[in-house]
Amino acid sequence: MKERIMKLLEENKDYNINLKETIYILSSNKCNNDCIFCTDYNYKNKKKYSPVKSIPKKYYQHRIVFTASEPTMNNNLINLIKEAKVRNYKDIVIITNGRRLSNKNYCEKLIKSGVTEFIVSIHGATPQTHDLITGVKGSWKETICGLNNILLLSKIYTYLNISINVTVTSLNLLEINGIKNFAISLNKINTIVFYGLKPQGKALLNWNKIAVKYTDIMNNLCRDNVWTPQVRVCDIPLCISAKYIPEKNCEFYYNDRKVLKDNKLKKHDPKDIGKIFLKKCNKCIKSNICDGIYIKYLKIFGGKEFNAIR
């Protein structure tokens, strides 16, 4: 299987994972979805979001990402984007469920204010599955409408990048291959990233019901041997993901990501989100890249599927 995928990627060499320093702005405490895995669930109780002007000047001209909970629910978002543009950020990104982008005029206002990339979250190949996961009937329809608006506007604003995020749970595991092929068929998607589940917020509360094995994720994603350069996985240990796909298509939180939270810039630390390394990980030649395994994951599935890469 991996040999077939490697051959496909060898024919499309123009890809790489952008590891430039990224600043994440927690830009809203509201969301119009109620996702069963929401990692920002606890953040919704907070009243303040992080102002762009709090970022030290030395981080200007890097990549800035507006996230948490749903940025488009912040009525001041356009002003935040304009602040980022004034500070000469090269990439201004919004991670969104896409529902408010179903309003084409609002979508275009975001682009004109400075957005260079939209990352849209899609969690099902069917409306039924997507709406079940988001907890809102009709959310699929609005998300797809928003995605279509971005695609249409990208014909005018040709610099615009469009990506799709998918969080894999037991509810959509059998549909992730379909989501992958749907995203590929759009032709204009820059990256399609499938995330392993993070045990935080509502995902932690629902962990026993929605968590899935990493091996099952990779088996379902790769079952048709269709893989293109823009398709990636994130937060799945290399000793599992690299059995199926090239290492270049595996993302981790090890790169220089910093989050502006409560006006303080903090670097990601795997320990902060409950990750550890097994004893056998000490012999792995990729331990400096991989950022460990969730303790919560190990409690349910054990550690037998993990092996040191030598």
Total helical elements: 11
The structural domain count equals 1
Q: What is the CATH architecture term?
A: Alpha-Beta Barrel
Q: What is the rounded Rg?
A: 19 Å
Number of strands: 12
Shape: globular
CATH fold label: TIM Barrel
Give keywords.
310 residues; TIM Barrel; two-stranded antiparallel sheet; globular; alpha/beta; single chain
Walk me through the structure.
- The protein is an alpha/beta fold and 310 residues long.
- It has a single domain (2-272), classed as Aldolase class I (TIM Barrel, Alpha-Beta Barrel), CATH 3.20.20.
- It has 11 helices and 12 strands.
- It has helices at 2-10, 77-86, 104-113, 127-134, 139-153, 176-185, 201-205, 207-210, 214-221, 238-241, 295-301; strands spanning 22-26, 63-67, 91-96, 117-121, 161-167, 191-195, 231-234, 250-251, 257-261, 264-267, 275-276, 293-294.
- The strands form 2 sheets. A 10-stranded mixed sheet has the order 8-7-6-5-4-3-2-1-9-10, covered by helices on one side. Strands 11-12 form a two-stranded antiparallel sheet.
- β9 (257-261) and β10 (264-267) form a beta hairpin.
- It starts with a helix and ends in a 9-residue tail after the last helix.
- 39% of the residues are buried.
